[in-house]
Design a protein that fits this description.
This protein is mainly alpha-helical. About 50% of the residues lie in helices and about 10% in strands. The protein has seven helices and three strands. The chain has a three-stranded antiparallel beta sheet with strand order 1-3-2. Strand 2 and strand 3 form a beta hairpin.
Length: about 110
């Protein structure tokens, strides 16, 4: 038979990095820095250093140098914490839709 898939949507590196964060922090797991580095060939700080600093400063994540985890407060706001790692184009698209997200992620952790 024929495949029910109509087409493929290739993921950019940016999309894959966001998916990695979503499948770790967004699923309530720790994000292992070494696994991120071996998967993408660079440190997470190179891609998300400002975001990590902002979220850490707001008390939403903890970083022990080996892994990043959400704090209890961060877990309550996991969807918004994860959203901070989305590419700007995805954040803009979500903001343009009706829904519960009223403030941009930068305001969340700012």
């Amino acid at each position: 038979g024929e495949s029910p898939v109509d087409g493929l949507l290739p993921l950019s590196d940016e999309d894959r990095k966001t998916q990695f964060v979503g499948r770790s922090l967004g699923d309530g797991k720790s994000l292992r820095r070494s696994l991120y580095a071996s998967t993408f060939g660079g440190e997470i700080d190179e891609d998300f250093g400002e975001t990590l600093a902002r979220l850490g400063g707001a008390g939403l994540i903890e970083d022990d140098g080996e892994q990043v985890t959400m704090t209890e407060l961060g877990k309550r706001l996991y969807d918004l914490v994860t959203l901070c790692f989305y590419p700007q184009r995805a954040q803009d698209w979500l903001r343009g839709r009706e829904g519960p997200m009223v403030r941009p992620p930068a305001e969340l952790a700012g």
